[in-house]
Amino acid sequence: MLNHIFIDESTWGGLCNTGRRQSPVDILTRGEEVQTIRSFSLNLTNFKTPESKPTIKNNGHSGFQIDLDRTPRYVTLTSSVDSNSAKYKLQQLHFHWNSKLHTGSEHFINGASSDMEAHFVTYNTKYPSFAVAANQPDGLLVIGVLYRIHAIPLTKLRAMTLVGNMTRNVISKDSTYTSSEPLYLTGLLPDLSRYSLSKPFNPSLLHDIIAHGMSFQSLNSPDFAVLPGSLTTPPCSENVIWVVFLDPLPITLQQKLPFLDVRTEYNNKEVPMENNRAPQPLYDRTITLAKSYYFYLD
Ligand SMILES: [Zn+2]
């Protein structure tokens, strides 16, 4: 009996089947695939500005999202060994989930899945639009944040409650809902402000570390992984730089429940949507871990 439908990957063609840098993957933080880098900078610009009237739309499993392109928000990512100076603009936010406990994230961390995963989808501003960038080899960067259900969460992600409440209004496919409550994106991210610098920081300059009075030992901040990958829905384009935070954020069961009511269409029937793709082979990719890094958040 088919209770839940989600991803019928047998119908996916092209790169989804033949690609060698497909996402998601199981991110192992030990082993030969991992190359640790100690100096990394992730700059999130204008992320503290809330989305004043967030609109969520349900266009089926690849189109359940909140568009965020009205307010310009930018991401840059630099490391001491890779001078990627690309500037990425935030386009949209969406979520992945599954009805079973502690499954639903797309990325696994050391063999373990989590309950949900948010994707902040950005595109390279050297291209005029998301639609153009989506077809370029250096077009996209996606930030992944995992969430795990805790019986007694350490912190309450109020923004997740808001997204859940919005989700209740777009249960049916091809529906849209606009909230009058502002959505704070920082409420869906790790508490980066605790580790933020007051101005953008060039990690390749050691004297900046001294100027900021910081030592590597003092930076006990959440780690993230950086790796090349793909879209996790067709056409599975292999033009995504992934930034995935390794520590899942705590949510409650109540916060996940609204997503389990979301419907999509399968064989002309409305069925519950589950939309997490299984981990794909890593092949010859290297996962870079940012063990010590710097944030700039405004
Ligand atoms: Zn996604």
Automatic annotation (TrEMBL):
Keyword entries, A-Z: Lyase, Metal-binding, Zinc
PROSITE patterns given in the database record: ALPHA_CA_2
GO MF annotations in UniProt: carbonate dehydratase activity; zinc ion binding
The keyword Zinc belongs to this UniProt entry's keyword annotation: yes
CDD domains with a match to the protein in the record: alpha_CA
EC main group: lyase
EC number: 4.2.1.1
Catalyses which reaction(s): hydrogencarbonate + H(+) = CO2 + H2O
UniProt entry tagged with the keyword Transport: no
Occurrences of domain Alpha-carbonic anhydrase (ranges): 1-291
Domain of life: Eukaryota
Pfam family, one: Carb_anhydrase
Family affiliation: Belongs to the alpha-carbonic anhydrase family.
PANTHER family: CARBONIC ANHYDRASE
UniProt-recorded name of the protein: carbonic anhydrase
Species for this entry: Dinothrombium tinctorium
